[in-house]
Amino acid sequence: MSQILKKYIENVRLWRGVAITAGVFSFIFCVLIIANFAQINRVDPVNTKVLNALVERLKENPNDNQLREEIRELDLLARKAYFTNQWQVRNGGYMLMIGVLVLIISMQFIRLATKSLPEVKNDDKVKYLIAQKKARFWVSVGGITLIVVALVFAFITKNQLKSTFENAALAKNVDEKTTEQSEQVNQQKVDTIKSVVAKEEETTKTETEKKENAEVSTSKEEVKQTQVVATTTSSYPSDNELRNNFPNFRGYGGCGIAYQKNIPTSWDGPSGQNILWKVAIPLPGYNSPIIWDDKIFVAGANTTKREVFCYDRNTGKLLWTANADNIQGSPTAAPKVQGDTGQSAPTISTDGRRVYVVFANGDIIAVDMNGNRVWAKNLGVPQNHYGHSSSLICYKNLVIVQYDQRINPRVMALSSTTGDEVWSTPRQVKISWSSPIIVNTGSREELMLVADPSVASYDPATGAQLWSIDCITGEVGPSLAYADGVVFALNEYATLTAIKIGFTPEKFWESTDYLSDVPSPVATDKYLFVVTSYGTVVCYDAKNGTNYWTKEFSEGFYSSPIIAEGKVYLMDKQGTMHIFNADKTFTLVGEAKLGEKSVCTPAFANGRIYIRGDKNLYCIGK
Questions:
Q1: pLDDT: which is higher, 248 or 90
Q2: To which H or E segment does residue 322 belong?
Q3: How far apart are CA 496 and CA 52, in angstroms?
Q4: Closest CA to 103 of 40, 215, 24, 200
Q5: SS (H, E, C) 262-294
Q6: 359-373 burial, b for 16+ CB within 10 Å, e for fewer?
Q7: What is the total count of domains within the chain?
Q8: Lowest mean pLDDT among 34-43, 120-129, 179-188, 257-266
Q9: CATH code at 372?
Q10: Residue with more model confidence, 607 or 52
Q11: How far apart are CA 559 and CA 538, in angstroms?
């Protein structure tokens, strides 16, 4: 009997030692991870006191190249430290989970071993077993406490590190359910979509042939009226119509290329030089203006009102205001958003037949070109901590909505005439604030989106995913850039990645030197221009990543660059437009002051630039 008891006691001692070791191990890692996390949240690697002080000194002495280099080295060092901390927190979390798992297994073996111990009457042994039971109790309490601490820590870090197993499982279940539903819906709708598109294309082609073959004997004014009628009755605009206007964020396709001509390069807001008109916007908003023919559109909102404004782009006269109210499903209270985003950050989109607007509370409306409501609905309040800012874009008879949020992220297409959901595709991504682009790769049209962890391409007509490449991390704000078969993605504390497009896309080149958290890049077939929010602009070779030049500006940027007539137009947060050649050497063309702060991207028309400031809308011309 004594040998059996000795064997049991030795087994219990062994597992108790393992349990104590695992508990101590887990406790140490828990403390280290929480301390590391606190350090990450306490120190902003971009806005440290030392770095900000050096930047202020550089503003006073902009020609101090040694100070400029010191700032660059300190900034790169801070970024590397940030990446190291994130790696430590992530891997420390894995080690903590392993320690807790070992602790639980050890306690289970202790329970099984002590459950079948033989009865003994020796008082010392009885005392030993009682003490052992108490020790096991406290080890259990310590283990449970450690698990609770780990779960609390996981809740705190859910927006910065990997989700906990419970949240991951929930997201997976939601995504699987949504995927299954989406596949069923898409299977029923794909043929219908293609049939409708083909029918509309055939109708448009027939109308065009009839118009070309018709004998015209009317005056020029009558011809002009006939063209207007034809434009407004066709189902969706041609590519030429889209290029000639400025229909959405960053223009045609959302790629940051303006096709307009005779663009001014000098103006001065305070003196009124080349300011054709200026008008106050009734409600605040960070959306950029868009243009169709002689009309310009912006939106504004606060916690109680959401409105769309249409101005005559030649005179600045307010033509109409459309209210986004009395929408079924709209929340009673506006969501909490950050001041840099606001209640009306997404840019409007138009197809020349209707205007489409989405707000931070998930309300989306369509109005005709005279401001009459066509349809309205609520998509559900976007679940993110900054506020929704992804802009809309139109494709033929569809309105594309990128809805990358905390639960059930997806991209969807709504009918431009009814607002009904035509297709919806789930996305395995985190929250993002970037906007979609649509490009013609030469072989097909692709809808491209970016969010942690991937750049993904979809068929804009059906929502079917064409390809996806993991290449990005973090809370993605910048949208994609595209030119000549290459798409570019970047984000702060991640990488700049060039992807060569094809049926099997591949990474072309990468860089981590200069990254953006807000402004989107812009590209030509030769060059890529990257703009950072802290004031640095970089020109790369688009095909191999060679850094041609780097230019430091005294102010930061939130506005995205636009290329027009071979020049880059880039406005800083103080309202100064920096204009330079889109070339491998930096050549400044001009610096024009608006006289008002601005974070919005400008819109272009022939001979005109339209800029939204903090309070006013400006028309600039020669």
A1: 248
A2: strand 318-323
A3: 25
A4: 24
A5: CCCCCCECCCCECEEEEEECCCCCCCCCEEECC
A6: bbbbbbbbbebeeeb
A7: 2
A8: 179-188
A9: 2.130.10.10
A10: 607
A11: 15
Residues 404 and 494 in one domain: yes
Tokens 């930061």, residue?
556
Percent of the chain with pLDDT over 90: 60
The residue type found at 514 is: Y
Grouping H, G, I as helix, E, B as strand and the rest as coil, residue 317 is coil
Q: Which of 162, 196, 211 is the last residue of a domain?
A: 162
The 10s digit of each residue's pLDDT in 175-222 is 444 444 444 444 444 454 445 444 444 544 444 444 444 433 334 333
Task: Region of 59 please: left (phi>0), alpha (psi -120 to 50) or beta.
Answer: alpha
Q: How far apart are the first and last CA of the chain?
A: 105
Q: Which residues pair with 308 in a beta bridge?
A: 299, 322
Contacts of 435 (CB under 8 A, 6+ apart): 249, 250, 254, 346, 347, 390, 391, 393, 402, 479, 520
Q: Is the overall model pTM greater than 0.90, yes or no?
A: no
Tell me the pLDDT of the chain averaged across its residues: 82
Look up residue 68 and give its two tokens. 């400029």
pLDDT for 549:
98
Amino acid sitting at position 540: Y
Spatial separation of the C-alpha atoms in residues 254 and 446, rounded to whole Å: 12
Q: Which amino acid is at 40?
A: I
Distance CA 137, CA 145 (A): 12
- The per-residue pLDDT for range 52-82, each reduced to its tens digit, is 677 667 666 766 666 766 766 676 666 556 5
Boundaries of domain holding 579: 236-621
Q: What is the dihedral of CA 101, 103, 108, 112, to 10 degrees?
A: 140
Chosen domain end from 139, 162, 185: 162
Which H or E run contains 571? strand 567-571
Q: Which residues contact 220 (CB under 8 A, 6 or more apart)?
A: none
Residues 433, 297 share a domain: yes
Residues 285, 408, single domain; the answer is yes
| Residues ≥6 apart with Cβ < 8 Å to 169 | none
pLDDT at 120 over 70: no
